[in-house]
Amino acid sequence: MRDLTVGSVQSHLVRLALPIAAGMIFQTLYYIVDLYFVSHLGEVAIAGVGAAGNIVFLVIALTQVINAGTMSLLSQAVGRKDHT
Fold it and tell me: Can you tell me the distance from the alpha carbon of 6 to that of 25, in angstroms, rounded to the nearest whole number?
C-alpha cells in the first residue's frame, strides 16, 4: 500500500483522479456511439436511448457518491493505521 502522507498532495490527487476521469470519458463515448448507431432507427429510438442514457448517468453519479463516502472512511482508517 502506498503511503499517501509522503509527497506532493497534487501528484497524489492527479494519480487518483486519472483512472476516474478515463472511466468517465469512456462512459460518455459509449453513450455517443450508442446514439450514433441508433440514430438510423428513427426519432423514437433516439429518444429511448437518450432517456436511458440519463438514467445511466444518474446511476453513475449515485455510485460515485457512495464511492466518495467509502474512500473517505477508508482513508480515515488507513490514517489511523487500522488495517483490520
Answer: 30
